[in-house]
Amino acid sequence: MHFRKLFSAMASPSEPPPRASPMTWGDPDRITALLGAHFDPRFEHAASTNYHSDGFKTEHGLNWSREYLLTVGTRK
Fold first, then answer.
1. What is the DSSP letter of 23?
2. Which residues have C-beta within 8 Å of that of residue 62, sequence separation ≥ 6?
3. Can you count the helices (H) and strands (E) in the chain?
4. Bridge partners of 65?
5. pLDDT (average), residues 12-31
6. Number of domain units in the chain
7. Is 9 contained in some domain?
8. Which residues are bridge partners to 43 per DSSP?
9. Domain extent for 73
10. Could you tell me how far CA 42 lies from the centroid of its own chain?
């Protein structure tokens, strides 16, 4: 009888948790909220520049920069 209640509770529909937007993955506050109980996060802002000699013909070829957030965590 107990197994029936257990499996009945497991099979009952429940509201799925809200999905976090991928746009919040680079938010230091969100990362700290998710991992801060077990890690001491440190954040570094940086940029990566890509250079290509083909594509648009300019003096410097085709290049662009993209900013990113590097997250490094030390386990508590």
1. G
2. 51, 52, 53, 54, 55, 56
3. 2, 2
4. 49
5. 79
6. 1
7. no
8. 71
9. 47-76
10. 14
